[in-house]
């Protein structure tokens, strides 16, 4: 459907009058034909054709992949032009899989604009299809081969009645199925004297073009725009949808640059669909924020509207219409807020920039509701009628007379160059509007004026700071003087000025526009373009100004904004600007600009984020400083390190020392401080701080003095143990290259950082602690034997007793470590001595967890081993569990100390309590092992342990198992030196087995009664088997059969109510 002049309501062509001199004069056919024959579409006025601005690629036609060369005329059939209506047939060649296709295309144009298109391909897209483009190109490139026709009304005027009747009847015959109903309806209305048609003089002619007073604009399928935006929004966070919407935004900017009135129309259609997005209501009801990708689309929407309303040549009626629409959208409850979640206290866009040193962050006034359209609404109040502004943007040579350059001036600096004293983001919005609406030269001129203003402000700020420096340094704190930061600002002032300046320096050669094989565009190539000013000796270039304004904006001290999205936007915008800065090749001129600005930033006081004193909640400069450090290092290493070390601070995590002493800040734990607003991006900021430190460490490799300075900065400013550990690992990796010798200085830095991590995490929970401990030992091993001795001797400040014995000392004493260090005998003995001392200290402090490790480490030293053993014995009665004691006892037996093992096993038995129903207890194997050990040692040891077993174990099956094992072999088979072994089996009727037998029978009786209390029928079979095992034990006694018979009779009497069970008992046992 055409947008603009509606073909169905085209202006009426009047019947020819007698005089051809009136307003309805019709040009004679021959004159008209010769006049129009050589016209081309792009010659109709000075405006170019927007659709031909790019090749027909996916970016311009996202849903069209042209399958034939558009610039070749062969596929285009002869196409007549009936005045302002072009039609033709476009043939699309066939392929191996698709047949040849032919499409009929019709184009209407009016005053250099294509006002409507129709194509038989049925393409549904907001851009022209490939066939429309092909026909347009054919008309432009081959005007002589296109047959021109007069408007159809002129042709009809030349016919007589018979010709007219023949013309109508042939037309109806050729298209009777399509036009016959319409033809009959029109005939009826014409024959009716009272019809509406007969009330109007003349008839419409769609080929005659619009009236001079009618509006005309490029064809835009409004319905298709709505449908596509709605479709992309409904796809949510999918990658393709966001890319397509950004492509539509880029198209709007292109339309604005071409001064196409459809730009604002298309943006209005897009905004309507954004406001109709059902997710807005859902997010508002649930109190959840929209996704980052969606939020960025809304930001771009708001920025585009600012560009639209700041059009320097828009009509007042247009601006009023936009203002009403923007206010309507902004007043809707679902309209997203500018900063994501919070109200904002930022100044109005039309306010002048006021830098008050006495501004207090505590002064809170009303917090108006600011939506994404608020800045565009405020922009409607701006105008371009200021005479000073008009002179700035209209001439490169606008300067003040030389005799007026003395003293202060609000319009010019001391060199006579014009200034523009406006709120900086607002002034930059003007630049963006000029650039977006196709006024690049005017945008450049205003940009230079803004930079001159920033320079003057920077100079005055330095003068102010010189007078306040002593007081601020003593106080150790400052206030934020900027009401809003320029990085992360909704109007993106820094990025706007930078792009405006660099676009003027970009080399637009074919080699610069090539696409690499990977599909990525090659980085742009820039050249120095001198600044066009009235000063003949000016050596400045736009490229140097771009670098300067980026550094000034990025170095501005600014308070961290409120809300997650606003803080995330600051980080994202900073990274975007730095990515563009990295595209610049720093030659001598740019390096000079870089050095100058870095020095000014370091001396900038409270106005600079890199000044000596900053506000506690100032946005950190780590990412910015990392770029500056890398860029400066090859040219001025001292300045690079000075700047990067200054930027290492993170005041929000520090508590300042008392006034007058700002050199020793006290550290806090790395957590989000209890404050409002919260720093949601603190984790990201800390990681950037770590990246800056890592960059400096890498660069300082081999320079002991610089490494020491960087190390001190890390220890003072980084508060996260995980990040310090990462730095330590990075330093270790750099210091130990695979193909070269190790760097000792950097290795020592890595070790010191690792030691700090150990101290920081010693008393806190950290899931990477074991990894950290193992890494530290590896690092100390790489440093050398003195480092290992040091950590062994000071283990209590670095490790827990368990870590010190099981990881540190064990690794140090391992065979691999000895081989790695190539130690001689004295060095090995020194390490072993330190490890044994550590082991004994740990065993004293934590015998439960360190005793076994201590014994293992002290095996080769008799005195140390005896000391460790005595520590275990002393701790056995109080702090150690039976499991720990059994483990150490088994170790003693394995090492050939059976009597000591027996003693420890006896101590373990005193801590054990095995109930009657714990027949699967994990300690059963230990009990059986202890009894077997006692039995193998001899009758005396067995006699000593059986009372402990009887006291501790009440499980009948376990006791019977022990009893059975003791009766199978003779005691004393271990062959202890100095003892005689009788070789006789032990009787259950005599001590010590008599006591064990009685205990076992008693346990069976008690267990039987306990089981019968809550027995169910499905356990009857299991219970009968249990009684069978009990009978085996009873029979070991001399009168066992009598005792068992009495026991069974007793059961029958007590549990006679359980008839089925007792019947089973009688069947088995009588």
UniProtKB/TrEMBL annotation:
It comes from the Eukaryota. Residues 103-140 form the SWIM-type domain. Keywords: Metal-binding, Zinc, Zinc-finger. Coiled coil: none annotated. It comes from Crocodylus porosus (Saltwater crocodile). One of its GO terms (molecular function) is zinc ion binding. One of its GO terms (cellular component) is Cul2-RING ubiquitin ligase complex. This is Zinc finger SWIM-type containing 5. InterPro entries: Znf_SWIM, ZSWIM4-8_C.
């Amino acid at each position: 459907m055409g947008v603009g002049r509606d073909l169905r309501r085209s202006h009426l062509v009047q019947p020819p009058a007698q005089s051809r001199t009136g307003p309805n004069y019709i040009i004679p056919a021959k004159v008209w034909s010769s006049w129009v024959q050589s016209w081309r579409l792009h010659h109709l006025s000075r405006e170019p054709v927007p659709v031909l601005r790019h090749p027909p690629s996916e970016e311009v036609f996202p849903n069209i992949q042209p399958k034939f060369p558009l610039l070749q005329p062969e596929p285009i059939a002869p196409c007549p032009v009936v005045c302002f209506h072009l039609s033709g047939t476009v043939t699309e060649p066939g392929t191996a899989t698709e047949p040849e296709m032919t499409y009929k295309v019709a184009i209407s144009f009016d005053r250099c604009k294509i006002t409507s298109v129709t194509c038989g391909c049925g393409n549904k897209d907001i851009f022209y299809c490939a066939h429309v483009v092909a026909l347009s190109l054919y008309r432009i490139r081959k005007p002589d081969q296109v047959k021109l026709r007069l408007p159809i009304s002129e042709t009809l005027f030349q016919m007589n009645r018979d010709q007219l009747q023949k013309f109508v009847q042939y037309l109806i015959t050729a298209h009777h199925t399509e036009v016959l109903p319409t033809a009959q309806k029109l005939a009826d209305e014409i024959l009716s004297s009272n019809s509406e048609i007969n009330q109007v003089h003349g008839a419409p002619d769609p080929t005659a073009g619009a009236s001079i007073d009618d509006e005309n604009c490029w064809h835009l399928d409004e319905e298709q725009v709505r449908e596509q935006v709605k479709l992309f929004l409904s796809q949510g966070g999918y990658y393709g949808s966001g890319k397509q919407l950004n492509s539509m935004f880029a198209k709007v900017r292109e339309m604005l640059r071409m001064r196409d009135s459809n730009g604002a129309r298309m943006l209005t259609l897009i905004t309507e669909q954004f406001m109709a997005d059902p997710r807005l209501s859902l997010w508002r009801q649930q109190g959840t924020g929209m996704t980052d990708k969606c939020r960025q689309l809304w930001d771009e929407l708001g920025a585009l509207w600012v560009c639209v309303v700041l059009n320097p040549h828009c009509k007042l009626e247009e601006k009023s219409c936009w203002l009403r629409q923007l206010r309507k959208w902004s007043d809707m409850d679902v309209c997203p807020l500018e900063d994501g979640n919070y109200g904002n206290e930022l100044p109005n866009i039309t306010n002048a920039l006021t830098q008050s040193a006495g501004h207090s962050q505590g002064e809170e006034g009303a917090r108006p509701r600011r939506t994404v359209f608020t800045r565009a609404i405020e922009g409607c109040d701006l105008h371009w009628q200021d005479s000073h502004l008009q002179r700035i943007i209209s001439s490169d040579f606008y300067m003040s007379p030389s005799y007026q350059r003395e003293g202060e001036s609000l319009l010019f600096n001391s060199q006579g160059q014009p200034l523009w004293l406006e709120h900086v983001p607002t002034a930059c919005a003007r630049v963006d509007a000029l650039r977006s609406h196709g006024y690049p030269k005017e945008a450049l001129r205003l940009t230079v004026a803004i930079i001159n203003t920033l320079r003057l402000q920077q100079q005055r700020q330095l003068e102010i700071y010189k007078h306040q420096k002593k007081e601020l340094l003593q106080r150790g704190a400052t206030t934020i003087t900027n009401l809003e930061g320029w990085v992360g600002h909704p109007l993106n002032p820094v990025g706007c000025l930078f792009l405006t300046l660099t676009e003027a320096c970009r080399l637009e050669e074919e080699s610069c526009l090539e696409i690499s094989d990977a599909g990525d565009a090659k980085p742009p190539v820039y050249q120095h373009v001198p600044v066009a000013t009235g000063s003949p000796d000016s050596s400045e270039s736009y490229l140097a100004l771009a670098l300067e304004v980026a550094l000034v904006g990025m170095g501005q001290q600014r308070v961290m904004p409120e809300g997650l999205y606003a803080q995330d936007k600051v980080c994202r915008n900073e990274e975007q600007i730095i990515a563009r800065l990295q595209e610049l090749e720093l030659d001598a001129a740019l390096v000079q600009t870089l050095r100058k600005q870095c020095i000014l930033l370091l001396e900038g006081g409270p106005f600079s984020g890199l000044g000596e004193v900053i506000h506690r909640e100032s946005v950190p400069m780590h990412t910015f400083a990392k770029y500056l450090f890398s860029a400066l290092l090859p040219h001025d290493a001292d300045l690079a390190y000075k700047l990067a070390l200054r930027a290492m601070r993170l005041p929000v995590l520090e508590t300042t020392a008392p006034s007058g002493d700002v050199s020793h800040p006290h550290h806090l734990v790395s957590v989000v401080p209890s404050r409002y607003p919260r720093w949601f991006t603190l984790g990201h900021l800390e990681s950037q701080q770590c990246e800056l430190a890592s960059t400096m460490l890498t660069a300082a490799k081999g320079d002991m003095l610089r490494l020491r300075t960087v190390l001190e900065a890390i220890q003072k400013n980084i508060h996260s143990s995980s990040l310090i550990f990462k730095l330590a690992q990075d330093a270790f990796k750099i210091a130990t290259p695979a193909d070269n010798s190790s760097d000792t200085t950097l290795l020592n830095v890595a070790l010191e950082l690792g030691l700090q991590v150990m101290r920081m995490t010693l008393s806190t929970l950290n899931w990477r602690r074991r990894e950290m401990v193992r890494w530290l030992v590896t690092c100390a091993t790489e440093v050398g034997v003195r480092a290992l001795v040091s950590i062994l001797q000071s283990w209590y400040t670095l490790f827990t007793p368990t870590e010190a014995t099981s990881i540190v000392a064990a690794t140090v004493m391992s065979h691999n470590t000895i081989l790695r260090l190539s130690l001689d005998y004295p060095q090995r003995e020194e390490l072993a001595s330190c490890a044994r001392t550590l082991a004994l200290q740990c065993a004293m402090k934590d015998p439960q967890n360190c005793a076994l490790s201590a014994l293992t480490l002290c095996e080769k030293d008799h005195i140390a081993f005896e000391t460790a053993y005595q520590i275990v014995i002393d701790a056995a009665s109080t702090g150690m569990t039976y499991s720990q004691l059994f483990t150490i006892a088994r170790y003693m037996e394995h090492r050939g100390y059976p009597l000591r093992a027996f003693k420890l096993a006896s101590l373990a038995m005193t801590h054990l309590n095995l109930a009657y129903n714990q027949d699967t207890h994990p300690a059963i194997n230990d009990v059986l092992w202890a009894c077997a050990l006692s039995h193998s040692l001899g009758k005396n040891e067995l006699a000593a342990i059986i009372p402990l077993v009887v006291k501790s174990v009440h499980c009948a099956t376990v006791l019977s198992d022990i009893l059975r094992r003791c009766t199978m072999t003779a005691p004393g088979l271990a062959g202890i030196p100095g003892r005689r072994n009788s070789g006789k089996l032990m009787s259950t009727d005599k001590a010590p087995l008599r006591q064990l037998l009685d205990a076992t029978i008693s346990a069976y009786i008690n267990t039987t009664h306990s089981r019968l209390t809550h027995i169910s029928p499905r356990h009857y079979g299991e219970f009968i088997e249990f009684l069978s095992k009990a009978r085996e034990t009873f029979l070991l006694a001399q009168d066992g059969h009598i005792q068992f018979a009495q026991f069974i009779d007793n059961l029958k009497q007590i549990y006679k109510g359980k008839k089925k069970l007792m019947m089973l008992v009688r069947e088995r046992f009588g």
